[in-house]
Prior knowledge:
Elements: H1 2-15, E1 53-57, E2 60-65, E3 68-73, E4 81-87, E5 93-99, E6 104-109, E7 127-133, E8 141-148, E9 153-158, E10 165-170
Antiparallel strand pairs: 1-2, 2-3, 3-4, 5-6, 6-7, 7-8, 9-10
Amino acid sequence: MKIRGFILAMIAALLVLPQGAVATEAAAAPPPGDISDNVEFIANIPEMRAAISINFIGETMFVSTAHGVYAYSIADPSAPSLMGALPMYIWENEDVDIDVERNLLFISRDPRGFTSPATPGAAFPYGAVHVIDVSIPHAMVQVGFFTVPAGHTSTCVMTAGLDTSMMWTAP
Length: 171
């Protein structure tokens, strides 16, 4: 239950940080705004105030932003520490999912992420999924990329007892 509370507190901290906050360490004070009564504030990461989505493998938290993917050790939840970063422009990345067995992170990109300036309605050409090897968090590397008709969110579906998995992507 303590891990669940920590995860909820991290999500809340990442989403409600003030836009002007910049620090090099986890902040000790809770961010402004409401925090649920059943969530204990532990720490936040001001540098990740623009986080889009997060996911976890063990004590490593992966954070996606429009500027890349970041890996943080949460072995000490009160002092998350940056392990590595993979800079990449991934505007309109909406979701990250994890294949824990293969140490892969999947980033879903909405079709609007490939248009500039914004394109109306059905003119969006395609969505995409980036596949990132996160087995060495301080040296993450993109190992795959494919386009899909949608791309808003994706989920890694493991097949129990088999060495297969599938990716389900929704518009």
